[in-house]
Structures are given as structure tokens and as C-alpha cells.
Write a structure and sequence with these properties.
The complex is a heterodimer of chains A (69) and B (608). Chain A is mainly alpha-helical and 69 residues long. Chain A contains 3 helices and 1 strand. Classes of the chains: A mainly alpha (69), B mainly alpha (608).
Chain lengths: 69, 608
């Protein structure tokens, strides 16, 4: 099973789960009733976390390993 | 039935026998102790036991209710897995300190009063210190000192709070503390601060990410479960429903993730994940509904197991390759596939994959945040779930076991010893077991559970979140490569200012002290000089004063004579000392006494 197959399965799962939400949406608040919200949040959230922490590290927090010596 | 036997005592007293035993017998004995403690716990009825009167107070070593029992179970089960993992370790000291650490944590869990709590709290800090120091590197020794100093500070806060609490209420019972704003709640604030330090809530968390990765391979595994989870336990006891905790928890969860993304050291990355996972439990305590508390407790239990499993995996890599920096690892799948898959079970659990333990506990806390209609908290906690999967489930395994373009591993390695694999296997089994059969966990929680983790909406939401996180990771995986850097955290404050403080003490402060010392010594010297021959000394002083006065009128025969005399006296000093017969000395003493007697007798009569 190649990488292409894996990604194929992955995208099929995502689509099915979004469709399932369209059919049977359920949630406590508005944002939870939007179909595919979690998928979108996961994608954007992941990119945001990587970008934000890398920016923090690059401009401020990351130092050479002998910083404290 | 066995109320008379404290499970912590099994570990603490049991630890004393470890150095006596040898070889196989020692290994069997080490594994038997946690089993004995588990049996002890299983047959324990609820109530208050092991009371001990101390002055006018009563120490309660055993408050056994559903809450303390649940934590007791998981600590003892985790202790078994961890002991199995550490079974090959030859140094008895490591086993002894681990067992003291476990025993004192159980002491904290079953403590019914604040004095007992404080006692075990301190034992916990000091016994765990040795799990760090046994690594015997310069880094571990320094990190250990910082670790214990932070915990001593936390302990002092706790003690100050306890004493104030005792002053205010007159009681040392360990129950829920008053909460509000104002000076009247000072005792609660101190105790809260002490608890938060152990729960590793930013900005008080840096001791954890600083010290845990410097511990021994097996020591770090022990450290993952006890300090932070017992802090969660005491927060549940003392500060249930404190709203501040919701926000602290949500921020903690995100904070841990962001620092884990930046981290290059595998075990430090996982240490930040411990901090982040604690955020969920803390938020749950703040929310304070039955479902949230159940969620917090369930998550603490699941976290104790999968965090141990993750540290076992990273520890196995460190043990076999001598490396833990992600920039120096990669391509190990060929050599350590079993370790990889066992690690991944922990990673799936921490990420909250359906059928793994994190899923049945984490979603409970997140759901209770949604039921509170706190969208921001909900988004932060869900965001932390994304990040947790990203760092512990994708970044770390990808950079450790794969991610070599030339397909050659960076280090030759093989699978770790059998006992380590077995320990990982049992822990992995428990993670899956809880995920597949959550009722086993839910049944022992203190509140009745009205929650179905495998409802369609949870399954769909979680799957979407994780799958799309994976897609984003795959697109950006090039950005996540380890770089040989360290990340500054709040330990910067005490590491840099601490160094400056030591410089201040060594240079300006010590110089000042030296000069004061010198002046005082000179004064003392002059008294010594004077008392060698007071009559001649006073003549010398008189002559010195005269010559100084007469110097402007030089040449002057008087001055010349004085100067000559002074030189002569100084040369011969102290010279012939005038001695008086002993009788005169005694007479003087008698005179003094008589004078004193007269003053004493007439005091209040002739004068006041």
C-alpha cells in the first residue's frame, strides 16, 4: 500500500465524516453545528500552531545550546 | 478488610529491604510490592483510618473514599509497569528512591489532614530528586538543584498557607478551601500556589521541562505520573470549581503544545506534553461539574499510563542509541520497529484516537467545556488536542524512526531489553483496554457517568480533527525538523538572575563584608595592643597626640624630647609590665561585689 493509497483513504474518511455531519448534525453551540468545522479547525489550527510557535522561537525564544553556560 | 495497612507504607518500608536482596530475588521482590499494594487497595473499605494524635491535633493518614481510591489504583498499577521497565537497573539507590517516591505519593493521596499532606509532599520532592541525580551528568546535577529549589519554594508556600489556615480556622482537616478575593483568603492563595507549582501550571512549570528530561531513562518514567497527578488530586480536593482554573488550564494546554513544537530533545518535548495534558485536568477542575470532574480524574488516570508509555519509548531510544535530540535521530524503524509501534499506541492515546484511552477521557473534559458554553475554552482545548497529536503523535515519531532522506539510520540500534518491552506492552495493553472498554474506567469514577464517548458526533468530530491535522502536518513536515537549539522558558528568570545573584554575592557583597571584617579586626587588634600594658599604652597615646599637636612648631626642644620618648616607648612596648600582688586583685573584685550588693539592696528603697 503506497503513500497515494493512504492519502486516498484519508480523504475518503474526511469526506464521509463531513457528509455524515450534514445528514445528522448535532452540537451544543453554533460552531459545532457547522458541518466540517472540526476538519477545518484541525487543518487551520495545525498550520497556525506550527507557524506561531516557529515565529516565537525564531524571533525570541530559540537560542544556541550553550546559552546558559 | 485490610484497613490497618497503608498502601504507601508497603512501598516505603518495602524499599528498606531492596539493598539486602540479590539478583532474581530482588527483581521478584520489586514486582511483588506493587502487586501487594494493589491487593491491599482492592480489599480496602471506605472510611477514615490510621488516626494518630499529635499534640492537640489528630493526624489522619488514611482518608479512603472513591476519589482517593481511584488515584491509588492508578498509581499502583503505573508503579508496577514502571518497576518492570526499570527491573534491569543494578543500582539499588534508584529503586529505593523510586519506591519512596511512590509511597509518599500514596501518602499524599490518602492524607486526611494538612500536616500529613505536607509531610508526604516534601518526601515526594526529595525522593524524586534522586531519580534525576542518578543520571550523574553535569546537566542532571544542575537541573536537580534547580528542581529541588523550586519544590522547596512550593513546599514553603504550602506550609505558610497551612499555618495561616490553622490560625484562621483552628482546623487542620484537608477539605475544600474558601475561595474569593481579599486578604482574608491569603491562606488559600498560598496553598493554591503550592499546588499549582506541582501541577506545573505556567509560569510555574519550568522545573518540569527542565529536570525531567535530565533524569535517568527509568527515573524519568517514574517522574511522569506521580508529582503532577497528585497535584491534580489535591486541587480536586481543595479548589473544586475555582473559575480561575478553567483559564489557567486552557492556557496551560496550549502553552505545552507550543513549546513542544519548538523542542529538539525528545524527552523534553514529552515533558511539555505532560504540562499540556495537565491543562485539561486543571480546566476540568475549574469547570467543576460532575462530568468535568469525572473527566479530569479519568484523564489523570489515562495520562499517567500513556505518558509513562511515551517516556518508556523515548527512553528506550535513548538507552539503545545514547541520543535523545531529534536532530541527531532518524531512520530507526529498521532497528526498533517494536518500540515504534508500542510508542505509537501511547501516541494514539495521548492524541485521543478513538479506541485509545485518551479519547474516552479527554473528550469528557472538552464536552463539559462545550456544555458550559465557553467557546474560547472549548477552542483552546481542541486546539491543544491538535497540537498534542502534532508533537507527540507525528513530530517525535516521524523524526525518530523515519525522516532520513538517504534511508540510512543515523545510529545503529536494536530493540531494548525484554523487561522494557514487556513493561511497554502491558502499559500499551492498558491504554487500549481503557479505550475499547471505557466502562471499566467509568465505573470507578466518584460520580455516576452519563457520557458516551462513542456517540457519533464525538467520533466524527475527533476523526476530522485528527485527519486534517495529519494533512497539515504532512504539508509542513519540512518545517518541523529538529534544530540544535534550546528554547528559553520561564526558568530563564532564575537561571540568569540566579547567576547574577551569585555574582553579586561573590563580588560586591563579599568585598564589602571583607572590608567590614578588616575594620573590625583592626579595632580588636588595637584593644589587644592596649591591654598588653595599659599604663604605657595610654602614655604612648598621650605622647602621640602631643607630638601631632606640636609638629607645626618643629624645631622645638619639647617636641624633640616627646618624639624621642615616643620612639623609645614604642620600641620597648609592652616592656616591663607593672604587676600587683594577687591579694590586690582579689580586693578589687571584692570591692566590685560590695558595690553591686549596695546597689542591689538599695534599689527601690533609696532610689529608683
Amino acid at each position: 500500500m503506497g503513500r497515494k493509497h493512504l492519502f486516498g483513504i484519508l480523504y475518503v474518511c474526511l469526506t464521509v465524516s463531513v457528509l455524515a455531519e450534514v445528514v445528522n448534525f448535532h452540537g451544543h453551540d453554533l460552531w459545532q453545528t457547522i458541518p466540517g468545522f472540526s476538519a477545518l479547525y484541525g487543518f487551520i489550527g495545525c498550520i497556525f500552531i506550527i507557524a506561531a510557535s516557529k515565529a516565537l522561537g525564531h524571533y525570541w525564544l530559540q537560542k544556541e545550546e550553550d546559552y546558559y553556560d | 478488610m485490610i484497613e490497618w495497612l497503608h498502601p504507601g507504607l508497603i512501598f516505603i518500608l518495602g524499599a528498606l529491604l531492596i539493598p539486602v536482596l540479590k539478583g532474581k530475588w530482588k527483581q521478584i521482590y520489586l514486582l511483588l510490592l506493587p502487586i501487594a499494594a494493589l491487593i491491599d487497595l482492592l480489599y480496602m473499605s471506605k472510611g477514615v483510618f490510621w488516626r494518630l494524635p499529635l499534640l492537640e491535633y489528630e493526624l489522619v493518614f488514611g482518608r479512603v473514599d472513591q476519589l482517593s481510591l481511584v488515584f491509588g489504583y492508578v498509581f499502583v498499577i503505573a508503579a508496577f509497569c514502571m518497576t518492570l521497565y526499570a527491573l534491569h537497573v543494578k543500582e539499588d539507590g534508584q529503586h529505593v528512591s523510586a519506591f519512596l517516591y511512590i509511597g509518599s505519593t500514596l501518602g499524599v493521596v490518602f492524607a486526611g489532614d494538612l500536616f500529613t499532606l505536607y509531610l508526604f509532599w516534601e518526601v515526594m520532592a526529595f525522593s524524586s530528586l534522586f531519580l534525576i541525580w542518578y543520571h550523574k551528568t553535569k546537566a542532571s546535577s544542575e537541573a536537580g538543584f534547580r528542581y529541588i529549589m523550586v519544590h522547596i519554594f512550593g513546599g514553603i508556600c504550602l506550609l505558610a498557607g497551612i499555618i495561616l489556615h490553622l490560625q484562621n480556622t483552628g482546623s487542620i482537616a484537608f477539605d475544600s478551601f474558601n475561595w474569593g478575593t481579599g486578604w482574608g483568603y491569603l491562606s488559600s492563595y498560598f496553598i493554591f500556589l503550592g499546588f499549582l507549582i506541582n501541577a506545573a501550571v505556567p509560569p510555574l512549570h519550568a522545573w518540569l521541562s527542565d529536570a525531567y528530561p535530565e533524569a535517568t531513562v527509568t527515573g524519568a518514567v517514574f517522574l511522569t505520573a506521580f508529582t503532577t497527578k497528585s497535584a491534580i488530586y489535591v486541587l480536586i480536593r481543595g479548589f473544586l470549581g475555582v473559575e480561575l482554573l478553567i483559564w489557567l488550564g486552557a492556557i496551560t494546554a496550549i502553552y505545552g503544545v507550543i513549546f513542544a513544537v519548538l523542542e529538539n530533545d525528545a524527552r523534553r518535548l514529552l515533558a511539555y506534553s505532560i504540562i499540556g495534558q495537565g491543562g485539561y485536568m486543571i480546566a476540568g477542575i475549574g469547570i467543576g461539574t460532575a462530568m468535568a470532574i469525572n473527566g479530569s480524574i479519568a484523564h489523570a488516570l489515562c495520562c499517567a499510563l500513556y505518558m509513562a508509555l511515551l517516556f518508556m519509548g523515548a527512553g528506550a531510544v535513548l538507552e539503545m542509541t545514547g541520543r535523545s535530540k531529534l536532530s541527531e535521530l532518524g531512520g530507526l524503524y529498521k532497528y526498533m520497529p517494536l518500540t515504534f509501534w508500542l510508542y505509537m499506541i501511547g501516541a494514539f492515546s495521548i492524541s485521543g484516537f478513538p479506541l485509545f484511552s485518551g479519547f474516552v477521557s479527554k473528550t469528557m473534559v472538552v464536552e463539559s467545556a462545550a456544555l458550559m458554553h465557553q467557546p474560547l475554552v472549548w477552542l483552546l482545548l481542541e486546539g491543544a488536542a491538535i497540537g498534542t497529536f502534532l508533537v507527540a503523535g507525528l513530530k517525535l515519531p516521524y523524526l525518530t524512526w523515519f525522516a532520513r532522506k538517504d534511508k540510512r539510520p543515523i545510529a545503529e540500534a536494536r530493540e531494548p531489553p525484554k523487561n522494557m518491552l514487556a513493561a511497554m506492552g502491558i502499559t500499551a495493553f492498558l491504554c487500549i483496554f481503557i479505550g475499547v472498554y471505557p466502562q471499566a474506567l467509568y465505573r470507578i469514577l466518584p460520580y455516576p457517568v452519563d457520557y458516551n464517548p462513542y456517540a457519533a458526533s464525538h467520533l466524527i468530530g475527533m476523526s476530522q480533527l485528527l485527519l486534517s491535522t495529519f494533512v497539515a502536518f504532512w504539508l509542513l513536515r519540512g518545517m518541523l525538523h529538529g534544530t540544535p537549539t534550546i528554547t528559553l522558558d520561564t526558568d530563564w528568570f532564575y537561571r540568569i538572575w540566579g547567576k547574577k545573584f551569585i555574582w553579586f554575592c561573590e563580588k560586591p557583597l563579599l568585598n564589602f563584608a571583607d572590608s567590614v571584617d578588616d575594620k573590625v579586626r583592626r579595632i580588636a587588634d588595637s584593644f589587644v595592643w592596649f591591654s598588653k600594658n595599659p599604663s604605657v599604652a595610654s602614655r604612648i597615646m598621650l605622647l602621640t597626640a602631643s607630638t601631632v599637636l606640636l609638629k607645626p612648631f618643629n624645631p622645638n626642644p619639647v617636641y624633640m624630647r616627646y618624639a624621642q620618648d615616643l620612639e623609645e616607648l614604642r620600641r620597648l612596648y609592652p616592656g616591663e609590665v607593672h604587676r600587683v600582688a594577687i591579694g590586690s586583685g582579689v580586693l578589687l573584685v571584692l570591692l566590685f561585689f560590695t558595690l553591686y550588693l549596695v546597689i542591689y539592696l538599695t534599689y527601690g528603697v533609696l532610689w529608683v
